[in-house]
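Thread: Modeling a multi-component assembly for a lab meeting

Hi all, long-time lurker, first post. My supervisor asked me to bring a structural picture of a complex we are working on to next week's group meeting, and I have zero experience with this. I have the sequence lines for every component (329 residues in total). Could someone generate the structure of the whole assembly? Inputs are pasted exactly as I received them:
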Amino acid sequence: MLIYTPLPLELVWENADRFYPAYQEISLGRLRLQVEPLGFGKCKVIRIFSTDPADYLQGAYQPGNILDLLQSHFF
Amino acid sequence: MKMQEAQPQPREPETQPEPAPGRRRVTARTASEKVENIKELGQMGVPAVKSDIHCLPIVGQIEGHLVMPPQNKTTKYEHIIPQLVALEEDKDIKGLLVVLNTVGGDVEAGLAIAEMLASMSKPVVSLVLGGGHSIGVPIAVAANRSFIAETATMTIHPIRLTGLVIGVPQTYEYLDKMQDRVVRFVTKHSKISEAKFRELMFRTGELARDIGTVLVGRDAVEVGLIDEVGGLAAAINSLRQMIKAGVPGPGRKH
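Re: Modeling a multi-component assembly
Sure thing. I ran the full set together rather than chain by chain. Output:
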């Protein structure tokens, strides 16, 4: 990998040695998502695994969105 | 649309009367969504109008093969690329506005996004706001027409001095080859000549830690990198005109 940026690399990679993201994969309906669990049934969307391009335009599953898995409509 | 029926929707939108053609309201905001908006964005509601153009923001670092530590704001290529496929496919979407405020990032990811934009069949307009540095440059020039705000800057500098290669022996020849990919893309998709671009890239005296050039607003237009100085209205106008005139996307231009 090659990074091309005017920012100093020490700034870009600061804390990289202490950054261990714990991601999990979950299924929602027919969608498979990579999420970061936040506790209390909430999780942050990191990535969508789908071959349907339209899935990537859905507002609710954009990376960074927080899903509440305890909300009834997920069951 | 048929796909949405088959999906569980996390936030069920209230049903709305049949929308008028053209611009239509999509959802009524639920109470929890309003609270979420206040919390996250500091405002009550975001406009709920569905437009026939899409806006793709390229912000922060362009993240490639490695997950960056959380102090970086990142644009993830694995999400942008299928989004572009969806935009290309969707019959309701007529054009794309790419808004850039990026400090560069992964060369491969940046070039991948730029190549995707450059091969779209729908008109694409790019607008550089704040900054469009390093690998942001090929993304900005990939559009049919590119705009830069008067105060926005673009930094052009060689890859080798801030380059980091993981798992590949980093030789001068290797970095030079990587740099050629960027130079070739930029010169192919903009009016700047290769000699001029390289001259800006290796200019000394402007950047303290590096060699290179900072182009501010009009400078980027004068060297032929960007087409026009302008803001949001100019960019949208240009896109609307292209849509109206049936101009094909950058993919058909080259």
